[in-house]
Amino acid sequence: MKGFGFIQRDDGQPDAFVHISAVERAGLASIHEGDRFEFDLEVDRRGKYAAVNLKPAPAQEG
């Protein structure tokens, strides 16, 4: 709804910002809490991490 949000990283580092434009470029209409993604990180001029090149993560076996 806001057009942006944050993705919790598996490596324990600070959450990565994600903008709706990155979601749309991935061919997705939206993302929801609990969805898992593979993504690249870009660092902005303030040193904050943004998620780009999102792809749905493969299903976890278990």
- The Cα radius of gyration reads 12 Å
Q: Strand order of the main beta sheet, please? A: 1-2
* Low-pLDDT windows of residues: none
- Give the N-terminus to C-terminus distance in angstroms: 33 Å
Q: So how many helices?
A: 1
- SSE pattern, N- to C-terminal: EEHEE
Summing up helix and strand content along with how strands pair, one would put the structural category as: mainly beta
On the 0 to 100 scale, the average pLDDT is 89
What general form does the structure show? globular
Q: Give the biggest beta sheet.
A: 2 strands, antiparallel
The amount of beta strand, in percent, is 35-45%
What's the helical proportion of residues?
under 10%
Total count of strands? 4
How would you portray this structure in words?
This protein has 62 residues and is mainly beta. It has one helix and four strands; from the N terminus they run E-E-H-E-E. The protein has one helix at 20-25, and strands at 4-7, 16-19, 37-43, 49-56. The strands form two sheets. It has a two-stranded antiparallel sheet. It has a two-stranded antiparallel sheet with strand order 3-4. The termini are far apart. The model has no long low-confidence stretch (mean pLDDT 89).
